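WARN retry 2 of 3 for item q-0093 after timeout on previous attempt; input resubmitted unchanged.
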Amino acid sequence: MKVQGRMFIWLAVFILVMAIVYGVWSKEPAGTTALFLAFGLSIMIGFYLAFTARRVDAGAQDNQDADVADDAGELGFFSPHSWQPLSLGVGGALAFLGVIFGWWLLFFSAPIIMVGLFGWVFEYYRGESQNQ
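OK item q-0093 returned
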């Protein structure tokens, strides 16, 4: 994680320099603001990764002499199948269409979003993939 933290901090420095150059050269507020916000985002991620790297064990990517096989193993649990993101996507699309065509469409999209959200949260508490 130390490598990733340094990468984001150097990216933040680069974006800051580019934001200053862009702001002085173009005098355009929207792009300058977007670049300064990108700087803030990069520095937050870089600080988080650098701060977390001190508290966890060093990974294989932090070792100069590590092989690819050193980082093998279980990386975490990932859901093999889930239909809930589809319902959240459909509900979200309907909600954004409600902004365009009329707020009345939100009455139809809100229940779809709620069903998808509750289904996703409680996915492993019921059904065939229930955990103990």
